[in-house]
Structure formats: C-alpha cells, structure tokens
Sequence to fold (252 residues):
Amino acid sequence: MNYFDKADYTVIVVGAGRGIGHASALELAAQGVQVACLDSDGAGAEKTAVEIATRGGKAVAARLDVTEADSIRPAIDSAIKGLRHIDGLVNCAGITGRTNVPAHEVDPADFDLVYRVNLRGALLLSQAVLPHMLQRRYGRVLHVASIAGKEGNAGMTAYSATKAGLIGMVKSMAKDYVEQGITINALAPAVIRTPMVDALPQATVDYMTAKIPMRRCGELTEAAQLIAWTVSPACSFTTGFTFDLTGGRATY
Fold:
C-alpha cells in the first residue's frame, strides 16, 4: 500500500549507505518518494542513490558527519536544493561503541563518541531540517532509537544511555512543533540483521535475541515499511511516540 499521496514528496535518509537506512531509502523510493541519501560513507550514499535511479526513482547523495554541524547543514541544504524541498527526515545514524563492557570500565572517550553520534547528532540533524519544515508548516521526522533505550542492554552503557536520551528528546521536541504540522517520532527496534549487528560479538546478539518472544531477528523490510509509513502523510495523529519493532519484547 502506498501512503504517499502528495506529488514530489521528499525525504532525507541519514545512514542511507547500509542497513536500515539503505532499506528505508529503497522502500521510500519504491513508493514514489524522492530520496536524499546521506551517509558518513559518501560512496555508500552514492551507491544507494544510483540503485534508486536504476529502478526508476529520483535520488541525490551527499556525505555528512553527524558529529559536526558544519558538515550537516551544507549536506542538508544541498539535498534540499537538489530536490526543491523537504517533507521528511529519517535518521538512522548510530553506533554501538565498545560492547560487553561493565559500566565501571567504560572509557569516557568511547562514551563521548557514542553520545556525539547517537544523541547530539540527532539534535543537530533536527535543527538543520526543522526551519525548512516550519516554513511549509509540514514535516515528518523519525529518529531510529533502540529497545536498549527502553530496557537497557548489559555491557552497552553508552549505547543504552544515548538511545534512552534520544527517546526523551523526541518526546520533548515533538511538543514544540505539535501545532505546526510537524510530527517527530522514534523507532525502537530490537535486534535487526544489519551490518552493525553483524559486527557485534555473537554473545551480545544471542543475549538480545533470547529476549524476543518471536525468537528471531527483525527483517530490514519490516523496519523499512514501518519507517516509510511513519514519515508519510498517513501518520498524521501520532507524535512524540516510540514505535515498537521488537517481536513482542516491548509491549509498552
């Protein structure tokens, strides 16, 4: 089902080079959306844009570093210039940092890096797109958080803390723009089979999967379809919410 009933609907996907971001960019394009593919891996972003164009869609690509405002704003402005306007933002940028580390052994430098990508980066991205959305009194923002932000994962203090912070930020930020036609939501996946998950120690993956009542990882297509709906005009009466994608692990 296609939920995009507006012509020239445009969505920026950050992290479009791989994983959930890549799958989301392809899903959006398949539904007729113009997609700006942004990623810290510029070649990966370009590859996704070419893949979309090959399938008959319209896409542009750019590199950005979500930890630097001076990198974010030019990339966002370039995307908007190439596609004329922006209707939605999907932020899939995120890192786990070191895992299987008890809290008293967490390296503050590692914690700071995870914070700069997962939480501070989400703020900077939001600040870059919201003025454009306010001008048109319409916008859809979705930040990908994690079940770790709701429940905490052992040995993942930095990741869990920053994803919890992201959920809190979405709740607060949504209230700031609730009367301007802009919705801001989050997505809390459990373990989804992505390159980031593949890079985790198997013990960590087993720990997370064992908590899922469906006893399996989520599929990229399942994430992409939910994301597409959330940034579509059809998702019009939900904001400040964290959507569940956990196979029954979180029912709240």
